[in-house]
Amino acid sequence: MISESHKFILITPPKTASTSLVTALSGCLEICNINYQAGGRTFDYTEISRDGEFKGAKGAKHKVARSYAQEILSGKYKTFCSVRNPFDRMISWWKFTGRRRFPDLSFRDFIFEPRIKTEVLFKNLTDSITINENISVENFIRFEHLQDDFDEMCDTVKIPRRQLPHKNTGEHKPGHYTEYYDDETIARVGEIFKADLEMFNYEFGK
Fold first, then answer.
1. What's the pLDDT tens digit per position in 60-112?
2. pLDDT exceeds 60 at position 43
């Protein structure tokens, strides 16, 4: 998302509290064509450019840094990205997408199941914040202490702090994901998300 009025860009990859963040910041954004999905649990939208015309296609909520390359590289915008421990994030993906499509799909099968579109679900967050092979975002809002980091963002871009709503929440509490894993799924997720684990210093169980 981009706010022309407050000069910030926030990258919100899927399953990183993106719906809550966009809802809280909606008054700072220039958006239209809000499209509610999943029974109203989540939504997407189209961005409007400064002159009031459509800016890009639908699907603005999960746009990556490369979509804002010109603005980011100009240095005129504060940049942020919401991030989450990939071990926790995969549980959320499984419950939101895997079991919705395949109700009897276990978490273990989800991780190794060829029917799942891995190019979408198993994408490193670092891919979302890279421009010309360089990390292009300066600040991060961690899912693990979401409100505190969001408050810091509000202070940085000089907007009033506001309470984040609980939107599109899963069935497990943050940090309570370890019970779903075994040695093989730990190794598999660790292999897939090596870049995220190194970039954000995440570990299994922490």
1. 677 889 988 999 999 999 999 999 999 999 998 888 877 777 788 889 988 98
2. no
Task: Supply the DSSP symbol for 164.
Answer: P
Tokens read off for 125: 């967050």
pTM: 0.83
Residue 61 near residue 44 (C-beta atoms within 8 A): yes
Are 8 and 159 contacting, i.e. CB atoms less than 8 angstroms apart? no
In angstroms, how far is the first alpha carbon of the chain from the final one? 29
Q: CA 80, CA 177: separation in Å to the nearest integer?
A: 26
Kindly state the DSSP code that residue 165 receives in the 8-state scheme: P
- Rounded to whole angstroms, what are the CA distances from 142 to 7, 50, 85, 92, 188? 21, 30, 8, 15, 23
Q: What is the mean pLDDT of residues 166-182?
A: 70
> Taking a C-beta distance cutoff of 8 angstroms, is the pair 111, 105 a contact?
no
Q: Could you give all domains of the chain from N- to C-terminal order, each with its CATH number?
A: 2-200 (3.40.50)
